[in-house]
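Please go through the sequence line and token line underneath and see whether the fold suits the sequence. See right below:
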Amino acid sequence: MGPKAEDPCAYPPRGLCREAAAQYLGVPTGLFDELVRSGQLPGPRLLSGTAVWDRHHLDAAFEAFPIAGGSSARALTATRLEPAVIHHPNVYTPETLAKRWRCSANHVRNMIKRGDLPAFRSGGRLLRIRADDVIAHEASNLR
């Protein structure tokens, strides 16, 4: 057999197995499992019964973790001690969702007001949209 032809579209995989997802984030699989169980990282999608983590969802969850140092380190300690105050990283603001959908944040807020998109208030005032609701909305509005 000759040498393998290289893929002309070199790209990272979208779906990752558990071990690859943990490696992608640079954490041991035990910690990865703990973060998934606690809701700090997204759960897998099931593809024909196989658990596969979406790299884009892992990226979004990773961005929500605090940066080490200063008051962020204190927030991380508080998260470990008080599970009730864990910030769920799999949420969008109207602004971040507007970037994803290439529309205005006001359009997203209007969708929420009309009841077209579920949302909740964080801290009594800040609007947040769960990633699962975004995915469900996108799936139901495929053209």
The chain is about 50% helix and 15% strand. Residues 90 and 132 are 8 Å apart (CA to CA). Residues 91-141 form one domain. The mean pLDDT is 79.
